[in-house]
Write a structure and sequence with these properties.
The structure is a homodimer.
Chain A: E1 2-7, E2 25-26, E3 29-30, H1 31-41, E4 47-52, H2 57-66, E5 72-77, H3 82-91, E6 100-105, H4 113-126, E7 128-134, E8 139-143, E9 146-150, E10 156-166, H5 167-179, H6 188-194, E11 200-203, H7 214-231
Parallel strand pairs in A: 1-4, 1-6, 4-5, 7-11
Antiparallel strand pairs in A: 2-3, 6-10, 7-10, 8-9
Helix pairs in contact in A: 3-5, 5-6
Chain lengths: 232, 232
């Protein structure tokens, strides 16, 4: 069985807003509701689990009602870090070892069904897959305001979500990390690599943006408009 | 003396447009004209040199006329790579060794005077400085669709432009790279580091976006609107 886990634990400190960014609205629809609707529409996904700050549980339930998300199976408490939120979501439902879990950031509302499907298929063939896009900028290592080195852009890619795993693998990777005191992974792939297991890359999508800053909200409004045009 | 070098040599293949992106318009104004106007306004900059494809020289001259860019000193021929365009710009004018050159990508129209000034000041104190912003995504090394490793996001930053250098230093760094057959540096900082000289980081600006994809054009229109509001 395939499940979607949506991580909405963050506080959105870079947004300059008191409302966590995943509850801000784009085109009148809460950011988190966009990906909930996408996974609701996909027949191959049987259940949705969400990690959210505890005080937002009623809001999640309300959104599920408003947008007819009948697949919502559980809401997990968001943790101090993204990694802990992800781990809580993995423990919030009785998964089977051979289930496939698609982990997605709530702050990426425009994940397409096609992209989610590419990630699911790649993970089923291999046990772990993630969407990536080429980096646009030169990336440098900086310490104490001194540029240590610039990295070879040719082999660098930016991780998006979905990141998809066989349940037994990702659960084991999380527990391995925690027993070693590692709690601040910026994505789930990092944990699987730490465990020494392979992860395959899938071609991501420039429209699958992560909403972090107020500027991103403007771009999101534009994309929402463009996506609606295409669906007509 | 301080000069601004604007690199507009690129073809903009990711934009899906026949017009090189630096000549597309935002709010009715060609992208390259935005930074030309900013540097024209700054008293501390005495001259502007532009690198552009040869067949666009008349367009550059027309833009300089239309927007009263009286500081335009030379137009250099764009090269095969960004690095070569930059080198051509460095040789297109009779600079003195102790001049300060601010190198900027034409595809970043929203460089602010404040950011340019921060970079100029840092470079004058140290000989080399560049604007950086923290990376938002997890960056991974990928080879043959296999994720080799994810990098420690804490010390990674994305390079923007301006990148500012003492002329003698950047000219020497370019010639050092060329004699070693290195022609594909994605920015000028890389060459200075290759030469073994220090470069300092300056806090960049999320609004100083690089226009690469059609989605970026939408964000640019929004930012143009917001910036006008602030200047009123």
């Amino acid at each position: 069985m395939r499940y979607a886990l949506i991580l909405a634990g963050g506080s959105g400190s870079r947004m300059g807003s008191l409302t966590p960014k995943q509850f801000l609205k784009i085109s009148g629809i809460p950011i988190i509701a966009w990906s909930m609707m996408t996974f609701q529409r996909m027949n191959e996904i049987v259940g949705i689990i969400i990690a959210s700050p505890k005080d937002r549980f009623p809001e999640i339930k309300k959104i599920a009602e408003d947008y007819q998300i009948t697949k919502l199976r559980a809401i997990a408490t968001g943790g101090e870090t993204r990694q802990i939120s992800s781990y809580h979501a993995l423990r919030a439902y009785e998964f089977h070892d051979d289930d496939i879990v698609l982990i997605h950031d709530a702050a990426r509302p425009f994940v397409s069904e096609a992209l989610a499907r590419r990630c699911l298929n790649a993970a089923e063939e291999s046990t772990a897959a993630c969407a990536y896009i080429p980096v646009k900028d030169t990336i440098a290592e900086i310490e104490n305001n001194l540029v240590r080195r610039t990295l070879d852009r040719e082999i660098l890619q930016s991780a998006q979500t979905p990141q998809v795993f066989r349940y037994s693998l990702i659960r084991d990777a999380h527990e391995y990390a925690i027993t070693r005191g590692f709690q601040s992974a910026s994505d789930d792939v990092t944990l699987v690599l730490l465990r020494g297991k392979p992860v395959y890359s899938v071609e991501g999508d420039y429209r699958n943006i992560k909403i972090t800053t107020p500027e991103d909200m403007a771009l999101a409004e534009y994309l929402a408009h463009a996506l609606r045009g295409e669906q007509r």
